Every structure is written in C-alpha cells, then in structure tokens.
Amino acid sequence: MANGEAGVKTSPRILSYGWGKMEIEGLGRGKDFKLWPGGGRPWDWSEYGTGHRAGVQPGDIEELIDSGCTTIILTTGRMRRLRVPREIVDQLEDRNIKAIVADTRKGISTYNEYVARGERVGGLFHSTC
C-alpha cells in the first residue's frame, strides 16, 4: 500500500470488478472484500452471519471503524439485494463516520474517487447480486 502525506496509509484501489470477482491493489483477486486505509481482506459473510436478508452485521464494520476510516462505503450488490440495516448507518454516524450506501458499481466508483483524493475511506464490497 502506498502511504499518503505524513505517513498516513492510503486505502487500496479497486483495479477491476465483474460478476463474482474483484481485483484489489496489493491484495489480488477475490469475490467480496473489506477494505480500509492500509489494507483489506476477503469479506467472509459467515464470520458474523451476514446474508442478503439479514444484511450487513455490526461485526462486519468493526475492522473498518478500528482502522480509522472517516468514510465507509457499504455496497448492496450489483442488483441491490444485500440489505444495509439503518442501525448500521446510525452506528457509523454516531461515531462521526460518513456512511455511503450504494449499489456495487456506484460504490466502487465513489470509493476509488475517495482513494484518489487521499481520504481515509473503507468499505464492504459485494460483487454479485
């Protein structure tokens, strides 16, 4: 990962994406990802019980919060099937973290714009439905 001004770590760029696949700068290829300033990892839905109906879970965002994100992008999938409960957005906003909920295509575009500006952005990226 590249470092920004004063040694602040930047978030990895999303280099490409398609149905069920993404390529992340410095992390390689995978299906779904959690990304934050200085790193990221594959997003394993079974870790906290995430699912299309259950939606994003509080545990899913803890790593992002702990990494010092000032903005977190929560993608709902390419067909907007993944729920993002209002409680998740409220939890972020209560911590003065900007929450952006978007379909995956728009979310990736927005995320890469924030990365290019050197913002402390993170996100959850779902590459299918």
From TrEMBL:
Q: Which InterPro entries match?
A: MTH938-like_sf, NDUFAF3/AAMDC
| Gene Ontology CC terms | cytoplasm
Instruction: Provide the protein's localization.
Output: Cytoplasm
**Sorted alphabetically, which Gene3D superfamilies does this protein's record hold?**
MTH938-like (3.40.1230.10)
Keywords from the UniProt entry: Cytoplasm
Q: Which Pfam families match?
A: DUF498
Q: What is this protein called?
A: Uncharacterized protein
